[in-house]
Amino acid sequence: MNTSAIVRDQVLSALPQAQRERLAYIDFRLYFLGELRRADVADRFGTGPAAATRDIAQYRDIASENLELDNSDKAYRPTEEFVPLFDHAPQRVLTALSSGFGEGIGEELGSMVRCEFPIELTTPQMSTLAPITRAIHRGKALRTTYTSIESGCTEREIVPIALVNNGSRWHVRAYDRRRNGFRDFVLTRVETPVLLENSPILEKEKVDQDVQWNRIIELELVPHPRHPRHEVVMMDYGMPDGVLRVKVRAANAGYLLRRWTIDCSPDHRLEGIEFALWLRDPLSLYGASSAHLAPGYVDPKSDAKITSITAM
């Protein structure tokens, strides 16, 4: 990092959080949309035109070479020498571009550029989600009705510890008092959850007791030996050295491997262009309760039985 960059970082770190957020938004619009107007800042943060002018002036004081005024339409444009002041996390950038920047009410926010999503076939009810997230945040138990394939409709007491999106649906990781263990509950199958304010949480029900949740596995993924274009796979997954290393919770490893259609067979026997990646060491999944979800996975112990992690 050069001296000017160090000075910039020192100046930015000394500013109040609210000021940094406004400067980050200016940086974002210049970088990803290629234009900035005073009204953009004023509308986003609910400030007046004079305050927006001061924010832009402060950005120019810190990085004058990053923007120039286009007098034809009174908009600032990024210069050819533009270097972003902030590290913009890819996931947040894509979320902002596709769903709007910041928090909004109802349907006010729209995409910042034309964007298309896969159709969501299943989403949880907000009246179900809210008690669950309150329970996670406050460390409380819930009483709920849950419908599973195995047991049908039953009443459960659960202690939620986290929400998980497996790529196709949401579930809640929770301690199940009925089965005395941690399980995954599909949110769309949860009905009428009620917070149990006066139900004490036992030590065994706390998140630090969930071995599968706390165990982190490192997976080494490589281009599938049967794939016709290894160089394309390496480009798609950003793996210049030919290996993609991913760290994932044991409780969620099977979900990830299934979502991305990764061949986990010991002899990479699965065929089809959809199998772009192969798990180089299938033994890395050993002991993970979600391993049975991984395409092609074979339990190295022939007599081992892997218990389903979904509350069936």
From TrEMBL:
Query: What start-end ranges are recorded for coiled-coil regions in this protein?
Result: none
Chain ranges of the WYL domain? 128-192
Source organism of this protein record: Chromobacterium fluminis
Bilayer-spanning residue ranges: none
InterPro entries, alphabetized: CapW-like (IPR016634), CapW_CTD (IPR059020), CBASS_pafABC_assoc_protein (IPR051534), WHD_CapW (IPR059019), WYL_dom (IPR026881)
Tell me which residues make up the DNA-binding transcriptional repressor CapW winged helix-turn-helix domain.
Answer: 19-87
* DNA-binding transcriptional repressor CapW C-terminal dimerisation domain ranges (all copies): 216-282
Please give the name of this protein.
WYL domain-containing protein
